[in-house]
Amino acid sequence: MNWPAPPRTSAHAADIGCGAATRLIHLVESRPGTTGIGVDVNAEACQLARQNVKRAGLDDRITIVQADMLDVVSDPAAYPQVAEADLVTSYFILHHFVGGEVGGRPFLTAFREAFPAARHVVVADGFTEEPGERAPVTPLFTLAYELFHDVMGIGLQTHAAQRRHFADAGFTILREIEFGHPLEWLFVLGSPGEGK
Which of 96, 88, 94 is nearest to 189 (CA)? Predict the structure, then answer.
């Protein structure tokens, strides 16, 4: 899949849930002068990401940090490199947290406030169908995705509910693209007032 290009003005990008850092490496390689920080809770993923960054020759421009997103959002001062990002990306992670709270605030509000320099946030995630609107033939992947999250106790949002959560947190939806499997969307979000 070719991801939509993030804004070219980004100087410091943070990828939350970076995995092997493939997306972050591509982003930094394609933008001279841009630096990046990858954050993942999994130690093995961070080790692989560091190897990939070294292999790409980007040790001086990309840093990998092992941390839980909730810790980063709860205490951004402890992760200054992350909090200073002007572009934040997150792929198929936020559904674990949306609807919850951090420090007595809705998660997405705390998330936005944890990245005060972020002009743009690029989020991809999977959703569930609107109640009563199940397609005549629902793809097996969609059913398996919903079942897996039900078993884990993670309530998936509908597309409409996710849009409301973004608006309630003060984000401006600049662009949204349906892609991949059914009910997967990519959002490009702006800081409050961006694009108006």
Answer: 88
